[in-house]
Amino acid sequence: MFSIILPLYNKESSIESTILSVLNQTLIDFELIVVDDGSKDQSIHLVRNIKDKRLSIYSKENGGVSSARNLGISKAKFEYICFIDGDDIWESTYLQKMSELISLYPKAGIYGSAWAYRYRDKIVTPNFYIKDRSVEIENYFSHAYKHTLFSSSSVIIRKYVFDKVGLFDERIKMGEDLDMWIRINIQFKAAFLNEVLAYYVMDAANRACTVLCPLDKHLLMYLEKFDCLRKENVALDIYIGHYCLRQGVPYYFHSGCKDHIRCLLMKLSLSNYPFFWRIIYSSQLWRINCWIYTLYKRLR
Question: Which residues belong to any copy of the Glycosyltransferase 2-like domain (predicted)?
Answer without folding.
Answer: 3-165
